[in-house]
Amino acid sequence: MKSFNSITIPHPFPYQGSKRGIAKHILPHFPSNVDCLIEPFCGASAISLSASAHGLAKNIILNDLNKPLMKLWEEILERPDDLVNLYEHLWNEQHTDKKEYFFKTRETFNSTHEPHHLLYLLARIVKGAVRYSSKGLFNQSADNRRAGMRPITMRKNIKAVSALLYKKTKTCSLDFREVVSKAKINDLIYMDPPYQGTSFTRDHRYLNGLSYDEFVDALKIMNQNDSSYIISYDGQTGNKSFGKKLPESLSLKYLSIKAGRSTQATFLGNKDETIESLYLSPALVDRLNEYPFPIIQEQQELMFA
User: Fold this and answer.
1) Where do the DSSP E strands lie in the chain?
2) Axis-axis angle for helices 115-124, 80-93 (nearest 10)
3) For the CA atoms of 192, 6, 157, 99, what is the dihedral angle to 10 degrees?
4) First and final C-alpha spacing in the chain
5) CB within 8 A of 30, min separation 6: which ones?
6) Domain co-membership, 182 together with 48
7) Which residues contact 291 (CB under 8 A, 6 or more apart)?
8) Within-domain flag for 3
9) How many domains is the chain partitioned into structurally?
10) Burial per residue of 22-50, b for 16 or more beta-carbon CB atoms within 10 angstroms, e otherwise
């Protein structure tokens, strides 16, 4: 019986919304014949890292419209030691005044988009929550109680991530529709797009928004192309729902994942559990019937009509 709990997966940087914590619930829905795993909204690439560690994909494509983020990924893959050396310099230099140094570095990053500056910002921001202004400027504040990940730990993580992905991974910064259109019959697409309600508000979490209707239209085309895909999209905590469910007309298989209590709920003393939604495409369901892994599913499953 294959287990997805036995390996410690390295992570490159803190990133709110990363599926690192529930990857073990997503990987069981990979078929056993994945030539290339494609992440069109990669962020911290938690699923690609987990899949690579467990040998579930021969090749990987990481994509995100956030070009500075993809420049950071390129450095992680190609020049991890140089990247961490620059990060270490920033980390050591900040200690005279961490708060002022963060704002100075943020201003520099917004002008130059240098990868090591972004890595430093990601290590320092509140709860790993990336925020951008309406003008596309990084505007999240620092958690001034902490100095960010220590260089020795950062080096260990970044080098481990690079070793996992380097020889099998390509990066790009394109519209997700262009990336998924390149998928072949034995590829698998994992999508964790911007949550609804976060793309067109004053508090921008993403450089580019994605409307519900745009996304649904793209999924219709992907179904016509028999694309195999998995989507993390909506969910709920207690009685509060996040986002509108994808339409039944797409004939997706719906699963609910118990993701535990959110950080905010724990902080407030609430016991409400977070439930994340997962959707599998019709083509993927067919592949899983033909090329399954021998894994026991412990999740609630509902097939749309």
Assistant:
1) 36-39, 59-63, 169-172, 188-191, 229-237, 240-242, 253-260, 274-280, 300-303
2) 60
3) 70
4) 31
5) 51, 56, 57, 188, 293
6) yes
7) 31, 32, 33
8) no
9) 2
10) bbbbbbbbbbeebebbbbbbbbbbbbbbb
Examine the domain organization and report whether 194 and 283 are in the same domain: yes
Q: Is 267 part of any domain?
A: yes
Q: Are residues 188 and 276 in the same domain?
A: yes
How many Cα atoms occupy the beta-carbon half-sphere of 59 within 13 Å? 9
The residue out of 157, 189, 224 marking a domain boundary is 157
User: What is the pTM (predicted TM-score) of this model?
Assistant: 0.87
Query: Each residue's pLDDT tens digit in the chain (305 positions)?
Result: 455 666 789 999 988 878 888 899 999 999 999 999 999 999 999 999 999 999 999 999 999 999 999 999 999 999 999 999 999 999 999 999 999 999 999 999 999 999 999 999 999 999 888 888 888 899 999 999 999 999 999 999 999 999 999 999 999 999 999 999 999 999 999 999 975 543 333 334 445 568 899 999 999 999 999 999 999 987 666 566 567 889 999 999 999 887 666 544 444 455 667 788 899 999 999 999 986 665 434 333 433 32
Q: How many residues does the chain have?
A: 305
Q: Is residue 79 assigned to a domain?
A: yes
**Whether 208 and 270 share a structural domain:** yes
* Cβ–Cβ under 8 Å, residues 105 and 117: yes
In a domain, 167, yes or no: no
